[in-house]
């Protein structure tokens, strides 16, 4: 497994600065991106590692490009892509440094609480987008505090990503709990998804082919859920 960054320590071994979750994840992304190189593939095909880092920078520094990230409007998407392409063309080491620095000083997620709520899942998922696109990948070993925040994301965002699912959906994470994300339709059953919060977040965000999640239910229900396209 890829190790998660530990707290920085003094020469005597005492903790000096405790990293916040998003800050640690940004440093982890920077380390992995540097190890893989700018042209390595990601699960966000056709994005390379360079493109994915540019996306992270743009989403926290260019409000004019945000509408094109979520809205299926071609004109908006073209503008976002143009901005992202220009950012991606920067020196790779500078791009990595921008990811580590985090959002622009005036960006709302400079507030630690908002940063944790908004960016923990975003950063964790995009880190796995890099890792799991490589041969012989292993999941990242995330600490409990990050897994706990990801479980909160499952409980909240999962209700949106599975809202149109053809089956009921229940998520179960050992040590964190069980939550019903969608009621079963009148003509369908329920699928129970079991995994760590990280794996469940990946499944909820459409990375089910690379998420280590066990799906329990009838063959028909499991197949129906697998065909469901999820997005926020």
Task: Describe the model.
This protein is an alpha/beta fold. The protein is 47% helix and 12% strand. It has 9 helices and 8 strands. The chain has a 4-stranded mixed sheet. It has a two-stranded parallel ribbon with strand order 1-4. Strands 2-3 form a two-stranded antiparallel ribbon. A hairpin with a 5-residue loop joins strand 2 and strand 3. Helix 2 (49-58) packs across helix 5 and helix 7 packs parallel to helix 8 (197-204). The longest helix is centred in the middle third of the chain and has 20 residues, at 112-131. Mean pLDDT is 88; it is low at 6-19.
Report the oligomer: single chain
Total helices: the number is: 9
What structural category arises from helix and sheet content?
alpha/beta
Helix content: 40-55%
> How many strand units?
8
In angstroms, what is the radius of gyration?
18 Å
Distance between the termini: 29 Å
**Order of strands in the sheet with most strands:** 6-5-7-8
Strand content: 5-15%
- The whole-number mean of residue pLDDT values reads 88
Major sheet details: 4 strands, mixed
Name the helix and strand elements from N-terminus to C-terminus, one letter apiece. Answer: EEEHHHHHHEHEEEHEH
* Unreliable residue stretches: 6-19
Shape: globular
């Amino acid at each position: 497994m890829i190790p998660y960054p530990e707290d920085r320590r003094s020469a005597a071994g005492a903790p000096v600065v405790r990293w916040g979750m998003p800050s640690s994840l940004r440093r982890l992304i920077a380390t992995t991106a540097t190890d893989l190189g700018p042209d390595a593939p990601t699960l966000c095909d056709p994005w390379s590692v360079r493109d994915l880092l540019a996306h992270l920078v743009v989403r926290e520094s260019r409000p004019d490009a945000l509408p094109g990230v979520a809205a299926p409007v071609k004109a908006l998407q073209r503008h976002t892509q143009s901005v992202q392409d220009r950012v991606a063309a920067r020196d790779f080491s500078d791009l990595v440094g921008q990811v580590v620095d985090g959002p622009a000083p005036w960006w709302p997620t400079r507030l630690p609480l908002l940063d944790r709520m908004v960016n923990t899942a975003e950063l964790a998922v995009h880190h796995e987008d890099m890792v799991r696109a490589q041969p012989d990948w292993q999941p990242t070993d995330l600490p409990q505090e990050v897994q706990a925040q990801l479980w909160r994301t499952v409980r909240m965002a999962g209700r949106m990503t599975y809202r149109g699912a053809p089956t009921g959906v229940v998520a179960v994470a050992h040590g964190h709990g069980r939550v019903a994300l969608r009621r079963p339709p009148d003509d369908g059953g329920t699928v129970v998804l079991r995994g760590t919060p990280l794996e469940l977040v990946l499944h909820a965000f459409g990375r089910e082919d690379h998420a280590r999640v066990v799906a329990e239910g009838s063959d028909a229900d499991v197949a129906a859920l697998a065909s469901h396209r999820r997005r926020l």
